[in-house]
C-alpha cells in the first residue's frame, strides 16, 4: 500500500503534539494507516512530555505566558521610544542623511515592535486555546509571523545600510556629500525595502490556511478545526532550491557586513578622536555619528544570541522548543526597542532634545535648562538642528 504523507509547515508543527510512541514527527490515521502527516521539526516544551500542550497550568505554558508579557511591555516601550526618535529628528531644520536614515530605521522598528506583539499574542492564543484554534486565529498567526520576519529583515538591512554609509563617509568625508544626497539616500532605502519584500515572498506564497481534513482520523490534529498547509510546488522551490541562498542573504551576510564595517568604522573614529584638533569638522561629525551608532550594532549582536541558540537547537536536536519561539520574538522586540536608550546614553544633546520633545508632547515633564549646553533653539514652532 502506497503511503500518502503530507508534510506540514513548521508554523503548524509549532502546535502539534505527537502521541506517545510516535517517532520522527510522523502520525498516521487510525482508519487508513497509509494516510499520514509529517513535521520536518518536532515541537516541544523544554520539559518534554511532562508539559502537555493541553496542560495549560504546566511550567512550559506558564513560561510562555511570562515571556509573552515581557514581549508586550518591551514592544509598547519600544514603539513609544521610536516615536520620540522620529519626533526629535523631525524637529531639526536641516536633516543630514545620517539622521534621515535613523528616522527610516525608527519607522521600521515601530512596525517590528507592533508585529512582535501581534505574533506573540496570536501564538499564545492558539497555544492556550483561547478561541478554539479557529481559522481567524490561525490566519492571523500565519500572516503576522511573515510580517514580523519581513520587518526584522528590513530593520537589519537598514542597519547594514547605515553601517556601510557611515564607513564610507568616515573614510571619504569630502566626496560623500555628493554621493549621499537626500534623494540618493531615499533610493537606497527603497532598494532595501524591495530586497526585504523579495525575501518575504516564500513565507507568504508557500503555505495557506485550510479546513482540517484529518480532524477525525489523526489524533495529533484532533484539536485543530483548521490547519496551515504547504503548497508543494512553491514550497519545494523556495525552501528546497533557494533555501541556502535565502539563508545567506537574510541571516549570515548581514551579520558579516555589520561586523566588518562596524569594526573598521569604530577604528577610524577612534583614530580621528585621538587627533581631534587636526581633523576637519566633517570628519569630527562622522566620528560622532559612528560612536553614536556603535551601541546599535552591539545590541544587534547581543539580541541575536537567542535566535542563534534556537537555530543550533533545531539543527542539532531536530526539535523546536516553544519557549525558544517566544525568546525569538522577545529578541526581535528588544533589538527594535533599545535604540532609543542607546542614543540617549551615547548622545548628550539627543538626550536633551528628547526631554524637550517629551515636554512639548505631554507638558508634564520638567522642561530642561537649555542654557546648560543644549543646542536646540526654538524659532516659532520649528527647532534648529542639533548635534548628537
Automatic annotation (TrEMBL):
Cellular localization per UniProt: Membrane
SUPFAM superfamilies on file: Family A G protein-coupled receptor-like
Keyword match Transmembrane helix: yes
Listed transmembrane segments: 65-86, 98-119, 139-164, 185-209, 251-269, 290-313
Sequence ranges assigned to domain G-protein coupled receptors family 1 profile in this UniProt record: 81-343
Any matching Pfam family: 7tm_1
InterPro entries in UniProt: GPCR-Ligand_Int, GPCR_Rhodpsn, GPCR_Rhodpsn_7TM
Keywords assigned by UniProt, alphabetized: Membrane, Transmembrane, Transmembrane helix
PANTHER family reported in the protein's UniProt record: FMRFAMIDE RECEPTOR, FMRFAMIDE RECEPTOR-RELATED
Similarity comment: Belongs to the G-protein coupled receptor 1 family.
Protein name, as recorded: G-protein coupled receptors family 1 profile domain-containing protein
Native source species: Orchesella dallaii
